[in-house]
């Protein structure tokens, strides 16, 4: 029987064994978004399988007009808690307020509030709609955070994949506009929406990696940025920003996957940040592909990934460091 999306045999020696087992059992015959005829109902399609269950957490949804946010509060709840704004992944096409609750509840366990953003999605809302919503969220937290028990003087931003693209752009604009952001967390970021194999080796070396191959990434790009001239806008491609925009960004924690199409452009953005004088903590998971961060229900390495994010935030906020047992009760299944 043929397999719809088999793993490339050349990748198997490098690919995490738990990932191989889960992929072959659950994902190999699942169509990727660009292999389906488009319908708006697909916005709700889960971009990643294998997530852990969220931790118990008090939440509040806030309607901001054309989009909404969800606030995850730490326990015990208190007034004036620091804030971490999180932008979900999904290629600017997939995702919702429920997309990455597992990670948001675990970041809240650090002792900060997490603001997840249900920004508008392409293709119905192409660039710059999602980026506008990302920035509007920061402005809302700064101007109205106290109404929700948030300390707007202590804000970090972060995101996953396309969400990390939004976070990087927000961080750059905050520096330009004098809005204080303490730090940014960029997890497998999209940094250059003009990227291709001519400039970035991973676009050739990792073009067939699971989770995000070149065809899927180019499809996402076409939905969010149908006008090619928008792709060089630094808001869409933070790597292409002027030096002063990059220099105005806060210190960063960047996580890259060695088997990711976006690996090289992520490294290039790390270099830009460092050259501009920013402090950057870089973590690379050589044996994982693009979407692995969100597979913390089945991958031990994904749990390490998320623990690292939580502990960077804890360190920046002066909170105690956590252990895996603080975030996860049940072990991951072993590799077959």
Features:
336 residues; alpha/beta; Rossmann fold; eight-stranded mixed sheet
What is the CATH third-level topology name? Rossmann fold
What can be said about the biggest beta sheet? Answer: 8 strands, mixed
Number of helices, where a helix is a run of at least 4 consecutive DSSP H or I residues: 10
**Helix coverage percent of residues?**
25-40%
**What order do the strands of the largest sheet run in, or round the barrel if closed?**
1-2-4-3-5-6-7-8
Kindly report the average pLDDT value: 96
Distance between the terminal alpha carbons, to the nearest Å? 21 Å
| Whole-number total of structural domains | 1
Give helix and strand order, one letter per element, not per position.
HEEEHEHEHEHHHEHEHH
Named CATH architecture: 3-Layer(aba) Sandwich
Describe this protein's structure:
There is one protein chain. With 336 residues, the chain is α/β, with parallel strands linked by helices. It has a single domain (60-327), classed as Rossmann fold. 31% of the residues lie in helices and 18% in strands. The chain contains ten helices and eight strands. It has helices spanning 17-26, 101-108, 129-144, 162-177, 202-205, 214-224, 243-247, 263-275, 300-317, 324-327; strands at 58-63, 68-73, 81-87, 113-118, 150-160, 183-187, 251-259, 280-289. It has an eight-stranded mixed sheet, with helices on both faces. Helix 2 (101-108) links the parallel strand 3 and strand 4 (113-118). The longest helix is centred in the last third of the chain and has 18 residues, at 300-317. The mean pLDDT is 96.
């Amino acid at each position: 029987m043929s397999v719809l999306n088999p793993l490339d045999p050349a990748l198997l020696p490098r690919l995490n064994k738990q990932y191989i087992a889960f992929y072959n059992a659950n994902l190999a015959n699942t169509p990727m978004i660009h292999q389906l005829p488009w319908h708006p109902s697909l916005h709700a399609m889960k971009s990643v399988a294998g997530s852990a269950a969220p931790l118990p957490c008090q939440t509040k949804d806030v309607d901001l007009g054309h989009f909404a946010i969800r606030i995850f509060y730490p326990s015990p709840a208190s007034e004036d808690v620091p804030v971490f704004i999180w932008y979900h992944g999904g290629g600017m096409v997939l995702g919702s307020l429920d997309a990455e609750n597992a990670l948001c509840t675990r970041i809240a366990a650090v002792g900060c509030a997490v603001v997840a953003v249900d920004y508008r999605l392409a293709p119905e809302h192409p660039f710059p709609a999602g980026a506008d919503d990302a920035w509007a969220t920061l402005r809302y937290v700064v101007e109205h955070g106290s109404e929700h028990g948030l300390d707007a003087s202590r804000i970090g931003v972060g995101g996953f994949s396309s969400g990390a693209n939004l976070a990087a752009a927000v961080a750059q604009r905050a520096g330009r506009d004098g809005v204080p952001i303490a730090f940014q967390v960029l997890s497998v970021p999209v940094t250059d929406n003009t990227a291709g194999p001519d400039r970035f080796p991973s676009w050739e070396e990792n073009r067939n990696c699971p989770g995000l191959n070149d065809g899927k990434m180019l499809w996402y790009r076409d939905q969010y940025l149908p006008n090619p001239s928008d792709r060089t806008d630094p808001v869409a491609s933070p790597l292409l920003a002027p030096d002063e925009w990059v220099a105005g960004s806060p210190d960063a924690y960047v996580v890259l996957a060695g088997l990711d199409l976006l690996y090289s452009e992520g490294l290039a953005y790390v270099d830009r940040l460092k050259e501009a004088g920013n402090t950057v903590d870089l973590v690379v998971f050589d044996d994982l592909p693009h979407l692995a961060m969100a597979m913390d229900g089945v991958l031990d390495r994904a749990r390490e990934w998320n623990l690292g994010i939580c502990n960077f935030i804890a360190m920046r906020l002066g909170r105690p460091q956590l252990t895996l047992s603080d975030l996860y009760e049940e072990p991951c299944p072993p590799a077959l």
